[in-house]
Design goal:
Length: 338
Amino acid sequence: MTAYRDLLPVFVLTGYLGSGKTTLLNALLRDPALADAAVLINEFGDVGLDHELVVSVDREIVLLASGCVCCAIREDLKEALLALHARRERGEVPRFGRVLVETTGLADPAPIAGTLMSDRQLRHHFRLAGIVATVDALCGLVQLDRQAETLRQVLAADRLVVTKSDLVTPAATAALGARLARLNGAAELLVAVSGDVAADRILSADLHADRHLDDSRDPFAPVGPLVPLADPPHAEGLHSFTLRFDTPLDWTAFGVWLTLLLHTHGERVLRVKGLLNVRGVETPVVVNGVQHVVHPPFHLAAWPGEDRRSRIVFIVRDLTRDQIERSLAVFNRLGAGV
């Protein structure tokens, strides 16, 4: 069995139609930092690759000037990943060290994450490193109100990239950034100008790397109430909050509680991300989930700063903070033998 840290990290690039995802992808493909990457896209015709082509391996795979492999997803994502991995092992394509998957503009990334996390064949070779979502600075606020796909992409993201910022005022960019922070305060927010943002900013430090968090940025800070949406059918009852616990949590009780919560209310728990002070463990444990999909928990090497309280960010629909807080408190007391 391949050790977890030796599995190939997979980044999912998503974003609504016209959000600048293709422009960003083109910029990433030109970046030498992606020389060790395989990039899976829906169709080559969607991306301007002509000036980048070096070798055409076959009708579905090309090698780019940056050194990375570009592959078309013409059928199933699972089959494309497994076939590409087999060619890597046979030496038919460069031995890439990570994968970037571009989704369609209408895709919900949660099922893609679920496939990567749950399929036994894929889990033998790959691990989900993170979800990156592009949001259009020109239309993002309107799309968040009117397009359920945009909202799902934003809530699932680990990194949010604001595109087309050069086409709006700084105030408009700041307003969109503030809205995104209220929706998904646990995601890192980046701003791209004309699609220009360094690849290593987007595709490095994946969720499961053993790393220190930046002391200057607490990704678990309270996100506050959401701004009401203009067109609420898909967002009615949606809100986010952060729970903090002064005493250490019992790991077994927490695991049982989270499993039951997601099993019972998975469709209503859109996102959960936590930095936990676990009883008997010196370093913090990171948990991260999107609906029914939960990433394997991992330990950070050290606490980011002096605050060692557990903090968990929730983005939920039609569940109250009090319901979740009370249920977790019950399980934690049971774990403590109270």
